[in-house]
Amino acid sequence: MKKSILLLPIFFLMLLSCSDAYDIVQDNELPEDEAYVTIGHLRSGLNGAYAAYGPDFGGDAIAFNDLFTDNIRRGPNNNGQGAEEYNFLIQPNSDMPTAVWSNRYATINRVNRVLRAYDRLFPTFNEVDQRNAKHVKGNLLALRALCHLDLFQYFTVDYKNLSAPSVIKMDFVPNSPFDVYPRNTVGEILTFIKQDLTDAKTFLAAGLQLAPGETVLPSSLTAYNSPIYLREVAVDFIRCRVAMLEGDYPTAESIATTILATPAFDLANRAAYLQMYGNADAPGECIFKLSRVLNNNSILNLFYFNTNSTGPIDPYLTASKQLYDLFPPVNSANNPDVRRVVLFGNVVDPANIAIDNYPIRKYVGSADGPTINDVKLFRSSELKLIVAECKARNSDFLGAATAVKELRDKRITTTNVLPTYTSLNAALTDILLERRKEFAFEGHRYLDLKRIGGEINVGINRLESDAFSFSAPTSLAAGDYRFTLPIPTVELTANPTIVQNPNY
Questions:
Q1: 165 close to 190: Cβ distance less than 8 angstroms
Q2: 406-410: average pLDDT
Q3: Burial of 225 by CB count in 10 Å (0-12 exposed, 13-18 middle, 19+ buried)?
Q4: Domain boundaries, the chain
Q5: Is 29's pLDDT higher than 80?
Q6: Has this prediction a pTM greater than 0.85?
Q7: Is 3.20.20.70 the CATH classification of the domain at 1-220+459-504?
Q8: Which residues pair with 74 in a beta bridge?
Q9: What's the pLDDT tens digit per position in 244-273?
Q10: Closest CA to 236 of 261, 267, 207
Q11: If you write DSSP's letter for every residue of 10-55 in order, what string do you get?
Q12: What is the maximum span of the chain, computed from C-alpha positions, in angstroms?
């Protein structure tokens, strides 16, 4: 069994309803001076913040990124599930924007409360506890930065217009539940995120320094220096994503290249890739993941009604025929692309093929139980494709093609021809396609089309047969306003200073 992040006792927990993203007093909550007294309490607070953070936001972000776009179609057991998203009918009161906004700000609130406790307790700790506390603070700052980055990506229209409205910066615990806050600018949010990441690295490094007389770190620290926490390499990964959003491609390429040069973060080979999503639930090339153990929520519950002892049954959402057709035929020799095996299994029932039914198999389970898999959020393959994109943007098309081929060589057993790129548009189009195959059902497609597709005029273009399954539109133009989520109704109602995104 994997080590699970420990949940806080109930009196530490804050309810995560839409209305309490940054409420002051929560039900069942002890006063902070009673709840946080020891270094153990700070660690519990950290684990509670991680427990609040989820890729599905308490909603359907992993499903949404594929459902709203072109990777999903209606399954045989569907009774209308997902129709709103598939038909591009996102509104301020829709589940997705509400869930993203509420969850991320609720998580930030938890982080800020623990940081406030840190400031109060740190001077009272002995030297050993101070070192441990610094490591906790580094994790908290990294998680706060990641939450703000998530909000930034979904709710900011133009990532590079520094004076345009973005989201609300929350680096404090509000004094009153009636306080309201305007949106900060893009420049202000990016500056804040980068500062949190810089400080996070400083505190993480300080927390991992050997004390006098030590030759190895105590287990109390090494346990927190693992892929289920935002260690220093994960902080650098976030810095890399931020640089891509800013258009600072030299910085992004430098960070990605440095991480990939570390043997532990090399691209997973075919066997390791299968184990990442198989029974072993192995880390593989994973840099940051969310631990999932028995009785935790399953990602496949986003696509299936039921689960039995062997896995999921009764799908209400399946992979699109368009996505399925991107890979070699189902019965091709040895299934040369390992990603097809992970996505659909070794063999798809011919009866399912006949009706364009392609059940999703990416999270079918591990030793912890059917459909229970860790959620891989940061992987080395993303860094490799970032290197490819950065080289292309620097007109190094050969370097970009080489990076793409290096990834394909790890995923595909047949001979891969070196791509030929003669323009930035051609390179980015191919890289976007590779990202689609590599990160299907991992929460990337919508955001990838927003960032890259808008630049190269690639929007959503579904097969008619896929769209017909939902009686939905086949296309959404690149750069459409719906590639940015609306500020949710719950925030608009409570906060008269907030400005809605255009066209909602």
A1: no
A2: 97
A3: middle
A4: 1-220+459-504, 226-291+325-442
A5: no
A6: yes
A7: no
A8: 317
A9: 999 999 999 999 999 999 999 999 999 999
A10: 261
A11: GGG-----GGGTT-SS-TT---HHHH--SHHHHHHHHHHHHHH--T
A12: 69
Residues 6+ apart with CB under 8 A from 31: none
Judged against a pLDDT cut of 80, whether residue 302 lies above it is answered with: yes
Q: Do domains 1-220+459-504 and 226-291+325-442 have the same CATH topology?
A: yes
State the CB neighbour count (10 A cutoff) for residue 177: 12
SS3 assignment, position 365: strand
User: Cα(287)–Cα(378) distance, rounded to whole angstroms?
Assistant: 5
Q: What are phi and psi of 305, to 5 degrees?
A: -80, -40
366 phi and psi angles, rounded to 5 deg: -145, -170
Tens of pLDDT along 165-216? 999 999 999 988 788 999 999 999 999 999 999 999 999 999 999 888 888 9
Give me the DSSP letters along 302-345.
GTEEEEETTEEEEESEEE-HHHHTTS--TTSTT-SBHHHHHHH-
| Residue 260 φ/ψ, nearest 5 degrees | -65, -25
409, two tokens:
């060589």
For residues 83-116, one letter each, b for 16 or more C-beta atoms within 10 angstroms of the residue's C-beta and e for the rest, the string is ebbbeeebebebbbbbbbbbbbbbbbbbbbbbbe
User: What CA–CA distance (Å, rounded) separates 313 from 307?
Assistant: 5
Report how far residue 229's alpha carbon sits from residue 237's, in angstroms, rounded to the nearest whole number.
13
Per the listing, tokens 């980068």 go with 194
- CA–CA separation, 493 and 310 (whole Å): 46
Please report, for residues 168, 232, 460, the alpha-carbon distance to residue 441 in angstroms, rounded to integers and kept in the order given.
28, 26, 16
Cβ-based neighbours of 119, under 8 Å, separated by 6 or more: none
- Structure tokens belonging to residue 18: 């839409």
Q: Please answer whether residues 70 and 326 qualify as being in contact, where contact means their C-beta atoms are separated by less than 8 angstroms.
A: no
- Residue among 300, 318, 303 at smallest CA distance from 366: 300
Q: Which helix (H) or strand (E) holds 404?
A: helix 397-411
Query: Is the domain defined by 226-291+325-442 classed in CATH 1.25.40.390?
Result: yes
What lies within 8 Å, CB to CB, of 65 at 6+ separation is 443, 444, 445, 446, 447
